[in-house]
Every structure is written in C-alpha cells, then in structure tokens.
Amino acid sequence: TMWIVLALYLCLMIGIGAYYRKKNNGTSDYVLGGRTLGSWFTAFAYGTSYFSAVIFVGYAGKFGWSYGASAAWVGVGNAVIGSLLAWLVLGRRTQIMSKHLDARTMPEFFEHRYASKGLKLASAVIIFIFLIPYTASAFNGLSRLFEKAFHVDYAVCIVVMGVITAVYVIVGGYKATALNDFIQGIFMLVGIAAVVITILNKHGGLSESLDMLGQIPDANGNTDSYNSLFGPDPINLFGVVILTSLGTWGLPQMVTKFYTIKDEKAIRSGTVISTVFALIVAGGCYFQGGFGRLFVSANEAGEPVNGFDAIIPSMMESLPDLLFGVVIVLVLSASMSTLSSLVLTSSSTLTLDMIKPFMKDKMDEKREVLVMRIFVAVFLLISCVLAIITLDNPKTVISTLMSISWGALAGAFIAPFMWGLYMKNITKAAVWTSFVCGVGLTVAHMFYFTFGKHTLTIGGLAVHSPINAGAIVMILDIILVPLVSLFTRKPDSAHVDEVFSCMDKAAEKTPKLYNYLFSLFEFVRRTVIISGAFDFWQYTFNTNFIT
What we know:
mainly alpha; two-stranded antiparallel ribbon; 23 helices; 2 strands; about 75% helix
C-alpha cells in the first residue's frame, strides 16, 4: 500500500512539472512565477520551504532529546519570529522594492540596492557554497526515513529523490514548484496532526506521556526536567529558537518568496496563513520529538543508541502501516518542496549572478533558462554526493549541516538585507563587513569547534555549538551593519533616493499592525466555526463581538 501511495504521489508531482513546462515564457516565469502568485500559494511555498526532513527528522529528534517537551518552544518561535514577524517586517517592503529594482535573486537585490557588482558576485558565491550542506541535510533526513520504511539502501534513496526533484524543477520551474508546495503543505498539515495524536496515545495520552517523560533523569540526575515548561537547559534552547526562527530573514530561498507575491493584499492574507501553518507544522514536529526518550534508549554517554538522526525514524516504526505511509508522504512532501526551492535558488543565482555577467550580451532569456536547468542537475548531484559521504560521520549529523549552512547564509545576509529595506545610509563597507563576519566566523567556528575537539561554555551557553554560533553571528551582524555605516563612506544620495522612491509612493498605503492582527483573529474565528464549534464559541462570547 505504501509503495502504491508513494508512486501515485510522485507521478502527481512530475505531472505538475510537465503541465507547466510550456507555461514558462522567460526567466522571470521560471524563477519567480511571473510575480503573480496569490497569498495561499506564497504562504504555503514559504512554509514548505521552511520545514523539511531537516526539521522533522533531524532537529525534532535532536532537540526533542535534549530539551524534552519544551522543544515545542522552537515551533512557537518559528511561527512568531520566523513567519509572522518575517512577513510583517520584510514582506511588503521586499515585494515593492524587489519589483522596483527588477531584482530576481538576492544577489541582484544587493547589486541594485548598493550599486555594487562586487557584492552581487560575492553573495552569489556564498549562496552556492553554503546551500549545498543544507540540501545534503535534507537528503539525509528524507533517506533515513525511507530506509526504515522500505528497507532500501540509504544511497539509493538519495539518488532516486534527487532524480525526481530534478525532473519536476527542471521541467516546470517556480510555478510547478509553487503548486507542488501547496499540495505538499496540505499533506504536511494533515500528517503532522495525525502523527502527534498517535505518538501520544502510545503511552496513554498527553498527561501520561508527560508523567513518564518527567521520570527520566537529565544529565544532572534531576527528574521532572524533560516535562517542564522550559526544560533542562533554557539558555541553549533559546539559541535554537533564534537560529531556526530569525535565520529565515536572511535565507535567499525564503526571502525570494516575497519577490513572487502579486500585491500587498496578498501579503496581508499570506501573513496569517503562513503563521498558522508554521504553528501547526513546526509546533507539532518539535512537540512530538520531545517524547523521543520514551521510544529510544540512551547509551552510556547519554545519547540515543543509534544516533540523533535515528530517533524520529525509530518513533515512526511504532505507527500503524497506513499512518506510516502518511508520514512517508508527509516527509517526502516537506523535503521535496525544500529541495526544489534550494536548487532553484542556487541555479538561478549561479546563472544570473555569476555566469551571465561574463557573457555580456550573448545570453538571452531562452539560454538563461537552459543554463539554469543544467545547474539544477549539477547542484543536486553535488548535494547527493555530499549526503552519501557524510552519512557515517558523527560530526555531520543533520542538525550540524543545517546549522553551518544557516549560520553562514543568514549571518552574512540578514543585516544588509533587512536594514537595506529601511535605512538609506547603509554603506557598502558595512555590507562587506557583514559578509566577511557571517562567513568568516561560521567557517572558523566549524574548523575549530565542530571538526576540532575544543569546547567552550560561558554562563551556561555552549559557545562550541554550531547552533548557538549561528545565532550569535546573526545578532552580531544586525548590530554591526548600522554601526559600521556611521563611520564609513556614505552612499550616493541620488542613487539611494531613486531606490527608495518606490517606498515613498507606497507610503500612504502602509497597512497598520491592527489590520494583520484582525486578519489573524478572523482566520481563527472562521476556523472555529467551520470545525463545528460555533455553539461553544457563541455561548462563551457575545454574539455582537463575533460579528
């Protein structure tokens, strides 16, 4: 049954790619869907690119083991900081300014915003290099679960998934990816809810599961720790929240989702949809991961017997066959949407920002699309090879690969991108400082701590952790960029005024915060009514209040 469901699902994905094959009329259609996508497609594309097997298998397993039920705070942070605030702070201005500057990629945004081809080239190189470990980690998580379900060799799973992803991205482009993301998002919402309920029922429900979790001693021998509100280590838990939530503000595959949305009204609706989606999917993933210790034994070192990446697959083995099949589709949905977003971002960056500038006028739009399709295949090939060769290295578990990728990318880009949308006086020197610090500190940390044998803890904060390192780098660069801009050569005022002219024209249309909050309330209210709880709602609240 699982094989049949899987085959039908994959045929659907490839069929969508084939359908959109002749609907890509140029580079903008292939990369951005013609900037015509609505709120639901964009919100689901944002959410499904955010959450993949990296989250479901790698992060949920490792941090659920480390922090217990309190790992659910990571999901809450992803919804509030990584989705709600990201859309509020970045969404509207990114959509307006990227369209005004005719920027199709993040490097093109840096080029036009700061009038620097050097920044464009440097950011393109950073994106291409550091998206590879993230893609490898997505392959890693997906293939581990497939290995458990179908008893197929890990390497074979990676190759097959790489080929299927390549087919529908190469053929269909962003529109095919967006429609697939929407379908995949529905699978994710239904699947994660069913999995959480089933996992809890394995040990008598929520209260019984929490009681059992509280009986397990932590590293200091304390009980009632893994079932507490903030867990055994709230300081380092906060580092995970920052990396996985704030990091989305600087990731090219996430930010470019705002490029594709058609108008400001769609952004307001997308803000609500994206937040609710993240709360259900991320909250559910991390919450169920918090109960991993009830399913997996610890070795003498206090770690799971088969490693952190095997925790969630081991939990899934206890599910009924039909639900396990749903989980397979869920994780496949999450991972393929993320993979398609990553490879499309990387190939478009490589083609438009690194190769085209050296081709002068020899590359028209038809040739651009052809080259991008070739590099989709090249990027997937490199990522598959990296995923296979890092399988048995304990230093390259899923969470480590993702942390290195997010630390370098978000650390380099979050500050110049965010401040560049709001502040006119940000200088090129400040942007270069952010690039150097983001990548330099991440790489130095990787060699000294991650692949070395050094550890460092300050005030309970594990500085040697790549998760905390990524969070620290992001916050540091957010402070550095405006600070460096105060003491370096100011940008050309005429250029800056022209860049921000689009914001001046749209200033009168700026939506108020209460509009977003009201939309969020409306979404919840209608959901309650549709779910059959109208009588309870009407009894609890005044009818006029509802109206």
